UniProtKB/TrEMBL annotation, chains A, B:
The keyword Transcription is annotated on this UniProt entry: yes
Keyword vocabulary terms for this entry: DNA-binding, Transcription, Transcription regulation
UniProt-recorded name of the protein: LacI family transcriptional regulator
Keyword DNA repair: no
Superkingdom of origin organism: Bacteria
SUPFAM superfamilies: lambda repressor-like DNA-binding domains, Periplasmic binding protein-like I
GO MF annotations, alphabetized: DNA-binding transcription factor activity; transcription cis-regulatory region binding
InterPro entries in alphabetical order: HTH_LacI, LacI/GalR-like_sensor, Lambda_DNA-bd_dom_sf, Peripla_BP_I
Domain HTH lacI-type: 2-56
Length: 349, 349
DNA sequence: CTGAAAGCGCTTACAG
DNA sequence: CTGAAAGCGCTTACAG
């Protein structure tokens, strides 16, 4: 790894000129540019990003903060992360994975985060990360609503509308007794979806019963990976078999639902319908039946999050929306059908 | 963000002393330490990682390079990445996601990678990344065998043994006509598994037929996400229904297999057995039947890769193994059973 | 279009 | 145990 001085000497120019050639911040004559490039190639030179960062105050990296120490990625996360990395790369930015709870970091005295900004996934109602970012003065955009003293830019789906749309879709099929396996209790997205669900049900004149709403356990909870399976059994049992439709939070959950229903001898969608929020085609079509879903467009969310952040940083031109809503749409497959007649799917015990 | 000078002045010590307190590289008297810490807190000071990196030559970040621009994570990837991030954090290291093909990077003139080392996933027989790392002088460990001029440390499963074990397992159940849906052609892991499969079959006296070996399409190929589904149909058709067992490369592929077999009216495991290499319990138990698998211990691989890399960097004590093999083991579930009598699963057409 | 020099915010011998 | 000073490898006004 040679340094800028050596290149400058070999190309018979000043360090400043070498710098200009690589940063392209000031024009350089064609002849000089070529001489510098040739010298650089000869010496295998590439600018040192760290030294550059020290003076430009730009690390050229953004943080992607995902809560949890241990985690599972759903299809949503996978597509989202993929898109964030790709979009960031378009502007020469790299992505630092950052998903460690602060208390689990080894070093007692942390150095500053070498990132220019952050994308905060799955925000909670009370989220340490928000406060941390604000204290450190790191610009960030959240994926989903957040509770903060100062307003912070957010990229999100319209979660209230999503649940309303799903309920309307199921209502139209004659369903009324719907159980909702919601996201984690402490997340803001779960709160919004919960409210919207309650409203939709009230609008339809359905009295809410306890078996109609569950929340995904924390990742640290061993019941996490059996969420769909176990709560589906509860739903069927507690509802006395009256439930005619299930809304599952993600693909993993939905597979658990299907598994439980199969064990109970219930047919999907004839006895009971299953609707899943997000998941990708290559998995959702693998089950029997293929799962009808709401496409949350995670790739759009990721790309918008990055451009919003880069706008905040002045890298990309354009105004930053305080609240950017990404469209979503129902993808019909085969797991939802007209509700069975009352009691048809009652379980024998 | 205040700087070291301000803290030094407030604490009435030199910059060097403030530095020592935070780096803990030289002892500092208790009294002075406390004064510095108090001043730091008051000024909300934290050392600037970039400035520190410039002189220490340590970025405190490792790169995780995953091939492809677009990607799907299998359960294997998810658990592996998770483990890498966690293990790195134990030593104060962060993880930079790096999965962009070089030709897709926007900036024509790249600055140096601000990482101390890299973990290279899914190496190919001819892999640009290896050459790049070597040219840039970045220490790296590969997950899987690699073709390189100089030997490079590798953390891996014993892929030959894995396939041998799987074949032995299936042989013991009476299977002989086995189709192998292998990893991508260009990967070294696929090559090792292929050879081992061929050996095992030869040892058993089975003549290899074309329908017995397939390779996963490149991610850029649209057939990628239907690999398991489509090739399973091919296997059944081309073998004239004589195949009695399928080995699938990963969970996603296996779900595709199951889907195809169901459409063909073949019962798993009575008509045909399915064995999957890797996948996690929370998905593998969701299908009908639950999938018997080889547990590759991705979390162990990730942790070992990080410690090996940090040893190369002199961060962690200990010798670095040129080749570190992580154990694997069969997890029996319900998708493999005794082979049916010859022709029992012949498909009617 | 190009150069000389200061400076980004730390760490690290060297000296005491 | 602590300090003064040089230096890490760049970029950026300033001057021409």
């Amino acid at each position: 790894m040679s340094k800028i001085d050596e290149v400058a000497k070999l190309a018979r120019v000043s360090k400043g000129t070498v710098s200009n050639v690589f940063s392209q911040k000031r024009p350089t004559s064609k002849e000089v540019t070529e001489r510098v490039l040739r010298a650089s190639r000869e010496l295998n030179y590439v600018p040192n990003q760290i030294a550059r960062s020290l003076v430009t105050k730009r690390t050229m990296a953004i943080g992607l903060t995902i809560p949890h120490g241990r985690f599972f990625f759903s299809a949503f996360h996978t597509q989202f992360i993929n898109s964030v990395v790709l979009e960031a790369a378009r502007y020469g930015y790299r992505v630092l994975l950052d998903m460690i709870p602060a208390q689990d970091i080894a070093t007692p005295f942390l150095a500053s985060y070498p990132i220019d900004g952050a994308v905060v996934m799955d925000p909670r109602e009370a989220d340490d990360r928000i406060e941390l970012m604000q204290r450190e003065g790191i610009p960030f955009v959240t994926i989903g609503r957040v509770q903060a003293t100062a307003p912070t830019p957010t990229v999100d789906n319209d979660n209230r509308k999503i649940v309303r749309d799903i309920c309307d879709y199921l209502f139209a099929l004659g369903h009324g007794r719907i159980a909702f396996l919601n996201a984690g209790v402490s997340t803001t997205v779960a709160a919004d979806r919960r409210e919207s669900f309650l409203e939709a049900m009230a609008g339809r004149g359905v009295r809410i019963e306890p078996w109609m709403m569950f929340h995904k356990p924390e990742l640290s909870d061993e019941r996490y990976s059996n969420y769909g399976y176990e709560e589906t059994k509860r739903v069927i049992e507690d509802s006395g078999g009256r439930a005619t439709a299930l809304i599952a939070d993600d693909d993993r959950t939905a597979f658990g639902c299907l598994h439980a229903l199969k064990e109970l001898g219930l047919d999907v969608p004839n006895d009971i319908s299953v609707f899943v929020i997000c998941g990708d085609d290559s998995m959702l079509t693998r089950s029997t039946p293929a799962l009808t879903s709401m496409d949350l467009r995670p790739a759009d969310l990721g790309a918008r999050a990055v451009t919003t952040l880069l706008r905040m940083l002045g890298i990309v031109d354009g105004d930053v929306d305080e609240r950017c809503i990404v469209d979503s749409g129902i993808v019909e497959r085969s797991s939802c059908a007209a509700a069975p007649n009352q009691g048809r799917n009652r379980v024998e015990r």
